[in-house]
């Protein structure tokens, strides 16, 4: 059994939830999203996040706008749509239920 593969699958399973959570307070561009995830020790590479952001946008959960930058090319800022906010609220409830169940099982004394 490859523990690294299992850990990677666990991270992928919560990445969408984490990205939507990052954007719940304010719009952000990809580098800001990546920095927030990395600061939380959730290691993600650009090759993973760009397709995911595109999929979330195509699903109607995110919108984006271009903004000029003083230090380079324009930046694409992502934000939650109303549908994205509703979806995130549902994920929060699901996460709480799942987290409580996992904690209950993993913290049982044998």
From TrEMBL:
Q: Which InterPro entries match?
A: Metal_resp_DNA-bind_regulator (IPR052509), Tscrpt_reg_PadR_N (IPR005149), WH-like_DNA-bd_sf (IPR036388), WH_DNA-bd_sf (IPR036390)
> What superkingdom does the record give?
Bacteria
By its UniProt entry, which Pfam families does this protein fall under?
A: PadR (PF03551)
The Transcription regulator PadR N-terminal domain covers 19-89
Q: Could you tell me what this protein is called?
A: Transcriptional regulator, PadR family
The scientific name of the source species is Flavobacterium segetis
């Amino acid at each position: 059994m490859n523990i690294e593969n299992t850990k990677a699958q666990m991270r992928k399973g919560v990445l969408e939830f984490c990205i939507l959570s990052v954007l719940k307070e304010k719009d952000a561009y990809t580098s800001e999203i990546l920095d927030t995830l990395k600061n939380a020790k959730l290691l993600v590479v650009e090759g993973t996040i760009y397709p995911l952001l595109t999929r979330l946008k195509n699903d109607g959960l995110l919108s984006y706008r271009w903004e000029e930058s003083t230090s380079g090319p324009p930046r694409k800022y992502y934000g939650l749509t109303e549908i994205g906010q509703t979806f995130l609220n549902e994920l929060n409830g699901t996460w709480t239920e799942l987290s409580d169940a996992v904690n209950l099982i993993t913290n049982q004394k044998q």
